[in-house]
């Protein structure tokens, strides 16, 4: 029964995207290596550059697009679900859909803490909701003492409505944390962090379902 449930979860995660995007998506999926399949969360990785990996995490949960965006925008709550985040704030709101965000990450001893300055924007269309994240101009926030600045940030959140009334959430990310950490350790921590984040995401997201986003409707 457990194996059957896991098989059904995989089908629900992959099939809705496959029927929308056809052979291009099927070919793209071949590049990903399954790292973890438990707790209704799929974690994949694939080689990126400089010996590092790109991470993809997926889960299915009942949520509106607006509730998910409210969770992301609640910077005071970000440390409660995004792994290793100790502080996050919006430096500048460029438009209703665009922000410049500063985030600080804690790191276990003896590694140094990290921070990053990113530009994010979102869109909603007939396919669903997508939020993209990339490096922002670094002069938006001077480098801070005790923190190593993360560069080469590229990430996205994608949400797609399923026929069963639930939503497929997919997160893909690559970042070079800099410093002297070996690649094997960076890659291992990235996979672990994605899993921890999605576990906490599933705990936090239901709290926002009864709230209404001012500019994002399903």
From TrEMBL:
GO terms under cellular component: cytoplasm
Keywords (A to Z) from UniProt: Signal
Domain of life: Bacteria
PROSITE patterns: START
Chain ranges of the START domain: 32-210
N-terminal signal peptide: 1-26
MF-aspect GO terms: lipid binding
Bilayer-crossing regions: none
InterPro entries in the record: START-like_dom_sf, START_dom_prot, START_lipid-bd_dom, START_lipid_transfer
Keyword check for Signal: yes
PANTHER family: PHOSPHATIDYLCHOLINE TRANSFER PROTEIN, START DOMAIN-CONTAINING PROTEIN
Protein name in UniProt: START domain-containing protein
């Amino acid at each position: 029964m457990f194996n059957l449930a896991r098989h059904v979860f995989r089908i629900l995660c992959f099939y809705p995207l496959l029927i929308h995007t056809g052979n291009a998506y099927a070919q793209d999926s071949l590049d990903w290596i399954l790292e973890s399949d438990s707790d209704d969360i799929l974690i994949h990785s694939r080689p990126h550059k400089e010996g590092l990996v790109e991470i993809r995490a997926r889960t299915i949960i009942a949520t509106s697009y607006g509730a998910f965006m409210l969770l992301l925008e609640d910077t005071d709550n970000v440390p409660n679900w995004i792994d290793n985040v100790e502080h996050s704030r919006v430096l500048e709101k460029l438009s209703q859909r665009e922000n410049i965000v500063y985030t600080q990450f804690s790191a276990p001893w003896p590694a140094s803490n990290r921070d990053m300055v990113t530009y994010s924007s979102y869109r909603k269309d007939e396919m669903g909701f997508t939020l993209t994240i990339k490096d922002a101009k670094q002069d938006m926030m001077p480098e801070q003492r005790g923190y190593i600045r993360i560069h080469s940030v590229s990430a996205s959140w994608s949400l797609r409505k399923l026929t069963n009334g639930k939503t497929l959430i997919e997160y893909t990310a690559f970042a070079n944390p800099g410093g002297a950490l070996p690649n094997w350790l960076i890659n291992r921590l990235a996979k672990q962090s994605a899993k921890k984040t999605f576990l906490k995401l599933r705990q936090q997201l239901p709290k926002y379902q009864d709230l209404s986003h001012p500019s994002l409707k399903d």
